[in-house]
Amino acid sequence: MSAERIKVLIAKPGLDGHDVGAKVVVRALMDAGFEVIYTGLRKSPAEIAAVARDEDVDVIGLSVLSGSHLPICRKFAALRREHGLETKLWVVGGNIPEKDRAELERIGVDGVFPFGSPLASIVEFIRSRTAPAGG
Amino acid sequence: MSQRDPRNVPPVVSESGIEIQPLYTASDVAASGGFAGIGRPGRFPFTRGIHELMYRHRPFTMRQYAGFGTPEETNRRFKYLITNGQTGLNVAFDLPTQCGLDSDAGMAEGEVGRVGMAVDTLRDFEIAFDGIDLEKITVSLTINGSAAILIAMYFAMATKRGYDVAKLRGTAQNDILKEFVGRGTWIFPVEPSIRLVGDTIEYCAEHAPLYSPVSVCGYHIRESGANPVQEMAYGFAIARAYIDHVLQRGLDIDEFASRLSFNFDVHGNLFEQVAKFRAGRRLWAQIVRDEYGAKNPKSAWLRMIAGGGGGGLTVEQPENNIVRGAYYALISALSGTQTMALCSYDEAYTIPSEKAARISLRTMQILLEEMGLRDTVDPLGGSYYVETLTNQMEERIRAAMAEVERQGGIVKAIAEGHVQNAVSRQAFARLCQIETGAIRKVGVNCYRVEEDQPGVEFHPFRAADCEAQITRLNAVRAERDRARVGAALERVLADARASRNVMPAILEAVQAYASVGEITDRLVAAFGRYREPIRF
């Protein structure tokens, strides 16, 4: 019997309406065999945290292209603690300048995937970081 | 067979699925429909341009997208661009304004003034357009979900400054159907959203006949993954949805069709793009004259802004985007556009710096002043290649529109998420082709260099601007006549519920300094909110 499928939440926090990338990532993850939930646009960090908790996802991916990734991620980090989601893998993608990578990692983001990241690198990262201990 | 045998070269297929031949002759034109549809510029079916003399009479309007932070800052950028020779303004609004939220709303946190100018009340428009001659400079408002409110605000500001709205020119994007496909600044459900667009068209037909209340955007559908044929087909299908809606109100096609305009994209194969626009002009003219029975030739004009090209720009080696922008501008000029705007080279990263915006403007000016692009109308007209492609593109756009009709029409296809699903599937397929190298992209999958931080200046976000905006909003709220605002907002709600044209009530509300958020809340009370269909 195969191991239970990894469950990934892809979310669009804030007001940013650019969803081409988020939807492309959803398709790539589905193709790779993950179970994917996509929130659609304009979700508050609190709504996203609630979905992550209720759906008991393994991975939370936020897509932000408006430039407001830092305030959004700071807010989400607090909610993550509040909802006991700190053990879930947290990835962020979109229009993320390289100079903000360190700060995002300090906030608690596990993987940062700016524009131009190969789809396979996102799949690989999630696979390697969600592999069951002891294989 | 030798390598040089034309039957031995590998096939080339364009993005729209047309097989490109190594050589075109008169027989290719004949086989694709002939030269009959070319005609003369300024005459039906306008393949070669909507005006007889085109740029020889008046060059295309140059209208870079601009706006950020506070109305004061935006006003300074507007004046900078005008001083540098820009002939129109294209106003960028921040996301709270686009989504109908005030700057102090919870969801607006961190977004105020970030990707465009923040607007809460009429006061902000008064500041942003201060000192700008609205007769000399035409203004385009890039606004959709909250367009009815922002159009009313523009009219109120102009009236206060002493302009006659009946003579006011300008454009609002106000194409809500494409927001459901790409861009995403919808607010209300699909049907009431179309009704609001109808209210603005009807109101302008009566009170502001020179104003263009809608600019139908194939642009953002293309940016979301559509190919050039779908870009035109979906755009035209959406335009028809607005026309059908307004005709149901009892207006005559000639009362409003001449004020509808279009916004299209320019990245991709140069010749396919030029053919796309020439075919689009011819097809649109036939739709409006032959299917809708328009008598006024101007009703059948496909007036457009062709530019942008954001989907063709790359984060890798951003300076290459300056070169791409120059080719996009060339495509746009060769296509007979009325207005041009270019994405700036830093736009894959940030909203344009002053320098990047000026380079885009200079790119367009160099074309006009140095390259001879304004000397002759439709310079590619008569080319065997371009005429064949034009015929083929027209046929394909027609077929794609018929396909949408067979699926139950564009409104249903969008409301159920089918168009969104189709374009997003294509975006995925295209990215996969770029990743495998099947589609070549310079600096991305070939000719790469190791880059440190690119030479792009990031637009700073200043929390102080947000605080200043909220302070002003609170000051306006404290000063205004509360009873007048309350009554005006009640009228907005009542007219929205009663299916009366809501524009007069919105105008009254903005004149009383009601805010974007307050007016939107009343419309939501009447219409509800859109729920996004998620389909993969």
Overview of this protein structure:
The complex is a heterodimer of chains A (135) and B (536). By secondary structure, chain A is α/β, with parallel strands linked by helices. Chain A has a domain at 1-62 and 81-111: Cobalamin-binding domain (Rossmann fold), CATH 3.40.50. Chain A has five helices and five strands; from the N terminus they run βαβαβαβαβα. With 536 residues, chain B is of the alpha/beta class. Chain B has one domain: Methylmalonyl-CoA mutase (TIM Barrel). Chain B is 47% helix and 7% strand. Chain B contains 19 helices and twelve strands. In chain B, the strands form four sheets. Chain B has a five-stranded parallel β-sheet with strand order 4-5-6-7-8. In chain B, a hairpin with a 5-residue loop joins strand 1 and strand 2 (19-20). Chain B starts with 11 loop residues before the first strand and ends in a 9-residue tail after the last helix. The model of chain B has no long low-confidence stretch (mean pLDDT 95). Chains A and B meet through helix 1 of A and helix 3 and helix 15 of B.
What's the count of strands of chain B? 12
Summarize the main sheet of chain B: 5 strands, parallel
Count of helix runs of chain B:
19
Classify the fold: give the CATH topology of the domain at 1-62 and 81-111 in chain A: Rossmann fold
Q: Which CATH C-level class of the domain at 1-62 and 81-111 in chain A is it?
A: Alpha Beta
CATH topology of chain B: TIM Barrel
Name the features.
heterodimer, A: 135 residues, alpha/beta, Rossmann fold, five-stranded parallel beta sheet, 5 helices, 41% helix, 19% strand, B: 536 residues, TIM Barrel, three-stranded parallel beta sheet, 19 helices, 12 strands, globular
Task: Please write out the topology.
The complex is a heterodimer of chains A (135) and B (536).
Chain A: E1 7-11, H1 20-31, E2 35-38, H2 45-54, E3 59-64, H3 69-82, E4 89-94, H4 101-107, E5 111-114, H5 119-130
Chain B: E1 12-13, E2 19-20, H1 26-32, E3 61-62, E4 65-66, H2 71-83, E5 88-91, H3 95-98, H4 122-128, E6 138-141, H5 147-160, E7 170-172, H6 176-181, H7 190-207, E8 211-212, E9 214-217, H8 219-223, H9 228-248, E10 260-265, H10 270-291, E11 304-307, H11 320-334, E12 339-340, H12 354-370, H13 384-406, H14 410-415, H15 418-436, H16 463-479, H17 482-497, H18 503-511, H19 516-527
Parallel strand pairs in B: 3-12, 4-5, 5-6, 6-7, 7-8, 9-10, 10-11
Antiparallel strand pairs in B: 1-2
